[in-house]
From TrEMBL:
This is UPF0353 protein. Residues 89-290 form the VWFA domain. The chain crosses the membrane at residues 6-27, 58-79, 307-325. It comes from the Bacteria. It holds the Pfam family VWA_2.
């Protein structure tokens, strides 16, 4: 019972409410019996109003229910609820390789990622340190984790495309940012929980083997060792293309399908979650899910307020109804 109520002994007060109901029924029946004993039945039938008799017990019933709810409120009901985190670290890792200029996601993959990333920064709870890393052939640390989410929004606006895709370097750079912040906060044990959110559309090209010491899979295993899950977002479609200018000045159309498999593997290796998005709307929904996962935590706590409000309102309604229907308090 203590798992459900902080003060379960107050539930014994329900017996008082039931006793009140029993007393009401007893008095009502006794009054009816007395009336029938001494009253002229013909006169009683002529002056009684069926409509009023039909509803005269409603005010007391409402009041009794209100008292039951107030009794539950006094018992301190406990419930799980989402509570905003006041400490956490998140690093966005965004792919800026040339494939991100594909227009299969309007207006382009990169522009959609920028818009969704800024919305994510806006919606993230204030107590979370947010950082930003971009990567193509190398990784660039754009914003160290900070509660000033506007800094990340400004940096997202300035993302520039570059050659190649070094997914592992982007993850390693994010891990370094988190490690640096944790050291400043007193070490890993004293540091808040951390998460990496990796958005990419393509297969790693540098190095070619993701199991290389600087590869994406190796970086994911390192994140797992550090207890930092990576939530990966595979962004784009299987039909994406980009126009690449060749050495002779000719333009060549190259297929750039998303690589769900490798991003799924990175999420699994790190203990994180894998998402897919093929439009800005879908990406916003993914970020909304992540925002809820990262920005809030489930906690058990006092849930008496809704019971208190409902009980009080019913008690007031019951009293008012008694005054209007029965011309007296119940």
């Amino acid at each position: 019972m203590s798992d459900w109520f902080a003060h379960p002994w107050w539930l014994a007060s329900i017996l008082l409410v039931l006793a009140l109901v029993a007393a009401y029924v007893f008095v009502l029946r006794r009054r009816t019996a007395r009336s029938l004993r001494f009253a002229n039945l013909d006169v009683l039938k002529s002056v009684s109003t069926g409509q009023r008799d039909r509803f005269r017990h409603v005010p007391f019933a409402i009041l009794a229910v209100g008292l039951l709810l107030l009794t539950i409120a006094m018992s301190g009901p406990i419930a799980e609820r989402d509570v905003a985190r006041n400490r956490a670290t998140v690093v966005l890792v965004v792919d800026v390789s040339q494939s991100m200029k594909s227009t299969d996601v309007a207006p382009t993959r990169l522009q959609a990622a920028q818009a969704a990333g800024k919305r994510f920064a806006d919606d993230l709870t204030d107590g979370i340190n947010l950082g930003l890393v971009s990567f193509a052939g190398t990784a660039s640390t754009l914003v160290s984790p900070t509660p000033d989410h506007d800094a990340t929004k400004k940096a997202l606006d300035n993302l520039k495309l570059a050659e190649k895709t070094a997914t592992g370097e982007g993850i390693f750079a994010a891990l370094q940012l988190i490690q640096t912040l944790n050291a400043a906060l007193g070490g890993d044990n004293a540091a808040p929980p951390a998460r990496i959110v990796l958005l990419s559309d393509g297969k790693q090209t540098v190095p070619s083997d993701p199991d290389d010491p600087r590869g994406g899979f190796t970086a994911a295993r390192k994140a797992k060792e550090k207890g930092i899950p990576i939530s990966t977002i595979s962004f784009g479609t299987m039909t994406g293309t980009v126009d690449i200018e060749g050495p002779n000045g000719n333009t060549e159309t190259v297929d750039v399908p998303v690589d769900d498999k490798s991003l799924h593997t990175i999420a699994n290796l790190s203990g994180g979650d894998f998402f897919t998005a093929s439009s800005l709307d879908e990406l916003n929904k993914v970020y909304a899910t992540l925002q809820k996962q990262i920005g809030y935590e489930r906690q058990r706590g006092d849930n008496s307020r809704p019971w208190l409000i409902a009980g009080t309102l019913l008690a007031i309604i019951g009293s008012v109804a008694a005054l209007f229907l029965n011309r007296r308090l119940p």
